[in-house]
Design a protein that fits this description.
Keywords: Aminotransferase, Pyridoxal phosphate, Transferase. InterPro entries: Aminotransferase_I/II_large, DapL/ALD1, PyrdxlP-dep_Trfase, PyrdxlP-dep_Trfase_major, PyrdxlP-dep_Trfase_small. The protein is 38% helix and 15% strand. It binds pyridoxal-5'-phosphate.
């Protein structure tokens, strides 16, 4: 009889967003006229910019004529897009187009990158964390067993707390695979150059690999904060970088991302660049031509200008949240280089208790920090993805209720 992958049975059900939806529905039923303001949205809301839509339409038209029709494209992406990314995003960092692999998303890539690593590697993640890194390693059998309260037996957790400015510190056990995400989801904090350099040095010293998720790179405003891990000396021998057009340019529904695997990244004489190329050509047939043309258009002068305007819109909302909450006496983090604001819940309340309180008193919805890991307890994530009007209203209600 067929044996299924038993690791799936170990995964605890993740009811975070289901539980939130249930509570919000119940509240709405009890308060039919009350406008609920959602600051828990984890998806972009600004539409695609015109040059992107135009490029997608033009490419779609090309597909309708024999002369310009395209079938299977290169598995790792079209040269035009890989070259544009290398020239634009890695201008002075000496990353070549064949070190860039186009894909349908950073979620796919961060979850399948484990395929090229041995199963007995020790994995380290931040706590709180984007759940994909953990769950994909559970499926691959690298996580051990789950225990309520302490998490997975074989995973090394790096607590990110107020005490360490939400930046991970070197764990007692030296990990082989280190997942880092900056600017961070959920905490919204970015990592200063020196700290990231320290991680690069650490990884090179111990022969570890850093899996660097830079999905929110475009939100960085603070001068000096690294946009790419390759700004750090020696990162090409220890790091893989993941980026996505999802949050940068509103591609969450369009699907396009890329992963950088430098040729200098080798372990035991094996090139990870070649392994990833083999992985992708075995497991995928590339991203659709119109979508890659759309991604290319993000880099045009007009595309950049308009994409920056959308990012500025989110930044403005984040600032409204930050300032409003500070005014109401809350302690808040993130929200500058990120669409996420990480607020400390009032003394004596859990993340979920605060969720209930905020819903009841303000009809405002956020995400309890405990949903992202043990060390997310006591925190609450608000996002800048709603409209400015709703963001202002939500903040006003919070200020009225809590001051
Ligand atoms: C949204 C997000 C991504 C992007 O995923 P896509 O599959 O490219 O849409 C990656 N990492 C983190 C931490 C995210 O929050």
């Amino acid at each position: 009889m067929v044996k299924v992958n038993e690791n799936f049975a170990k995964l605890p059900a993740n009811y975070l967003f289901v539980d939130i939806a249930k509570k919000v529905d119940a509240y709405q039923k009890e308060n039919p006229g009350r406008e609920i303001l959602r600051l828990g949205i984890g998806d972009v809301t600004r539409p695609l910019v015109k040059p992107v839509v135009d490029a997608m339409k033009k490419a779609a038209d090309e597909m309708g004529y024999a002369e310009t029709f395209r079938g299977y494209g290169p598995e790792a992406g079209y040269g035009f897009l890989r070259e544009t990314i290398a020239a634009h995003d890695y201008q002075n960092l000496d990353i070549s187009p064949d070190e860039i692999f186009i894909s349908d998303g950073a979620k796919s890539d961060t979850s399948s990158i484990g395929d090229i690593f041995g199963l007995d590697n020790i994995v380290a993640v931040c706590d709180p964390v984007y759940p994909v890194y953990v769950d994909s390693n559970v499926m691959a059998s690298r996580a051990g067993d789950y225990k309520e309260g302490s998490g997975w037996s074989k995973i090394v957790y790096m607590p990110c707390m107020e005490e360490n400015s939400f930046l991970p510190t070197f764990p007692k056990t030296v990990p082989d695979m280190i997942y880092l995400c900056f600017p961070n989801n959920p905490s919204g904090v970015s990592i200063p150059k020196e700290q990231l350099q320290a991680w690069v040095d650490y990884a090179n010293l111990h022969g570890s690999v850093i899996l660097y998720d830079a999905a929110y790179e475009a939100f960085i405003q603070t001068p000096g904060v690294p946009h790419s891990i390759y700004e750090c000396q020696g990162a090409k021998t220890c790091a893989i970088e993941f980026r996505s057009f999802s949050k940068t340019a509103g591609f969450t529904g369009v699907r396009c991302a890329f992963t950088v695997v430098p040729k200098a990244l080798q372990f035991g004489g094996t090139s990870l660049n070649q392994m990833w190329a083999r992985h992708q050509s075995t497991k995928m047939n590339g991203v659709s031509y119109p979508v890659q043309r759309a991604a290319e258009a993000v880099y045009t002068e007009e595309g950049q200008k308009l994409v920056r305007e959308n990012l500025a819109y989110y930044h403005k909302n984040a600032k409204i949240i930050l300032q409003g909450l500070q005014h109401a006496g809350f302690t808040v983090y993130g929200g500058v280089d990120s669409p996420y604001v990480w607020m400390k819940v009032p003394e004596g309340l859990t993340s979920w208790q605060f969720f209930d309180e905020l819903l009841k008193r303000c009809a405002v919805v956020g995400t309890p920090g405990s949903g992202f890991g043990t060390h997310g307890e006591g925190y609450f994530r608000l996002t800048s993805f709603n409209t400015t009007e709703n963001t202002e209203k939500a903040v006003q209600r919070i200020v009225e209720q809590f001051t």
